[in-house]
Design a protein that fits this description.
heterodimer, A: 158 residues, alpha+beta, 5-stranded mixed β-sheet, 5 helices, 5 strands, globular, B: 286 residues, 5-stranded antiparallel β-sheet, 4-stranded antiparallel β-sheet, 11 helices, 14 strands
């Protein structure tokens, strides 16, 4: 298979890579670029563990080809904190114990970031619908919902 | 495998037409990549159509709307004019999958994947939507219901691409709606579904109707007899009961783990009633 040369922007940085045509963006992020925050859960777009933001849209990176990132903007969990300064969502997930094993957490955080960017004051129902593409098998969802509500309040006040 | 991103529909059609092995069109990829990973398809060529001019836009024209084949379903809900004119089509598109999937999936992909349970298809059929098909012999415009011919099968010839969906400009006093039955609140596949599109006269009498049922037969059903029940009436209880009966009778569903034939028949009628009432209300009827 002939490789595909891709020039893209990831977390604000210009990145170039060569990938196989059938390689997913998730595989590129994890295996070629060392950005292992996004996790492969189901690999079929059902669990949300591999969520990233692609040109301002929340997507499962397991259902995007690496070649498709050409000329686009990718945001991953690695771009969420600023140095040692956690994003309010990350801080609130910690405070509310909204994570246990952590596999789903990067996907939840990215999905919640996308949700709050589009709807800064979501109701509980809107949060649950917004995060319905992300599955967690440890905490149950109540702590996650409370963490997102709390973060939304903090971010509005900021 | 080869991945290409042509800049024109002619190039895309040309590459697909001359492909020797299995070829696939990539728009949103939410079906294609799953099928590739499952080993159901091993394309030698993937034609990514997102860079083709006009395929990623929704255009409002004098005749209505033109929705490009690569427009993600999430974008439909963000287009205020489309949402106002065709709320049923938009609500059907917004029921597909999660936010992640909606950021990628397209109504053309939903149509061409040809699942009998596709959410956007009954709404498009009820809306009288057309599909613009580009192929080696030029372009043709066909009714959307002419695209799927059975589960996973379409009428498209080798090299053909559905490049856009056309929705007519709305006459006054018109409305559409879509609902599906699923055993949970979201992120599930329709057990049975219904789309209804109505146009009323000044007095609120239905003068044109289209009723479509999903997951009720190998392809989406356009139920002409159901439309005839509605035309010339207001959706009072008696009319709606007749509508339900006709829709239940028109179903040719399967028994499977998600629903029995009997259940699907019953729910098709119930949904048709509810959806007709909503479409009527949206059309301004009282």
């Amino acid at each position: 298979m002939a490789g595909v040369a891709v020039s893209t922007t990831i977390n604000g940085d210009h990145v170039e890579y060569l990938c196989q045509p059938d390689e997913t963006l998730l595989e590129v992020l994890r295996d070629r670029l060392g950005l292992t925050g996004a996790k492969e859960g189901c690999g079929t777009g059902d669990c949300g563990a591999c969520s990233v933001i692609l040109d301002n849209r929340l997507v499962c990176s397991c259902l995007v080809l690496g070649a498709e990132a050409e000329g686009r903007q990718v945001e991953t969990i690695e771009g969420m904190a600023h140095g040692d300064q956690l994003h309010p969502l990350q801080q609130k997930f910690l405070e509310h114990a909204a994570l246990q094993c952590g596999i789903c957490t990067p996907g939840f955080l990215i999905a919640a970031k996308d949700l709050l960017a589009k709807n800064p004051s979501p109701t509980e129902e809107e949060i649950r619908f917004g995060l319905a593409g992300n599955l967690c098998r440890c905490t149950g969802y109540d702590k996650i919902v409370r963490a997102v509500q709390d973060a939304a309040n903090v971010m509005k006040g900021a | 495998m080869r991945y290409i991103r042509p800049l024109s529909i002619e190039d895309a059609v040309g590459e697909l037409a001359k492909a020797v092995g299995p070829a696939a069109i990539l728009a949103g990829g939410s079906d294609l990549l799953v099928r590739m990973k499952g080993g159901f398809i091993e394309p030698e060529l993937i034609v990514d159509i997102k860079a083709i001019n006009g395929l990623s836009d929704i255009q409002e024209t004098a005749d209505g709307f033109r929705i490009g084949a690569a427009v993600p379903c999430a974008v439909l809900g963000e287009n205020a004019a489309l949402k106002k004119a065709w709320p049923g089509v938009v609500e059907a598109a917004k029921l597909i999958g999660s936010k992640q999937v909606q950021g990628r999936c397209t109504i053309v992909g939903n149509l061409c994947n040809a699942s009998p349970a596709a959410d956007s298809v009954p709404a498009l059929v009820a809306a009288g939507a057309k599909a613009v098909v580009a192929g080696p012999n030029g372009k043709r415009t066909i009714a959307v219901e002419a695209v799927p011919t059975g589960p996973g099968r379409t009428s498209l010839a080798k090299g053909e691409i559905v490049e856009a969906i056309l929705l007519d400009k709305r006459p006054p006093h018109a409305g559409d709606a879509y609902q599906r039955f699923i055993p949970r609140t979201e992120m599930d596949i329709a057990v049975v579904s219904a789309g209804v599109n109505l146009t009323l006269d000044e007095a609120g009498i239905i003068k044109a109707a289209r009723v479509a049922l999903g997951a009720a037969a190998p392809t989406v059903l356009l139920v002409e007899e159901a439309a005839q029940v509605l035309v010339g009436s207001k959706p009072d209880e008696q009319t709606l009961e007749r509508l339900a009966k006709v829709c239940s009778g028109a179903c040719r569903p399967i028994d499977d783990k998600r629903g029995t034939i009997e259940f699907r028949r019953k729910v098709a009628g119930v949904l048709a009633k509810r959806v007709a009432a909503t479409a009527y209300e949206r059309a301004g009827g009282k």
